[in-house]
Amino acid sequence: MTIFKRKKLDKKSLKEFQQLLEKEKKELEEKITELNNKEKDMAIKTPDFMASEDSSVEADEVEELNNLLSLKLVWENDLDRINKALERIKKETYGICQKCGELIETERLKIEPAAQICSKCLRKKNIDV
Description:
Strand content: under 5%
CATH class: Mainly Alpha
Number of domains: 1
CATH architecture: Up-down Bundle
Shape: elongated
Oligomer: single chain
Largest sheet: none
CATH topology: Four Helix Bundle (Hemerythrin (Met), subunit A)
Distance between the termini: 41 Å
Structural class: mainly alpha
Number of helices: 4
């Protein structure tokens, strides 16, 4: 009877990816905090479209606030993916494709350290969409 050992990344690679993810996490948290502060400042200055003849300034401020909120949402999603990847490291499931169970290619993880699926499954997913 042959027992198959579950494939995993080696400890050195795992540590490198963990450090990379933690660095990205810290950077994102700082950016989100900065955006939160900027958002608070902008929200305090709620535009009064009736107060001035030229409402284009207020419209620009509203547009800028909307852009900040969109960017914040993207960064919060990225942060969530990073936190999930760090959890997978703790559970020793990092680097394993959540679709097929094979190892995610190291080159893919270098480009997208929070990747959850391998390139093969990603291509299948994009074809099916």
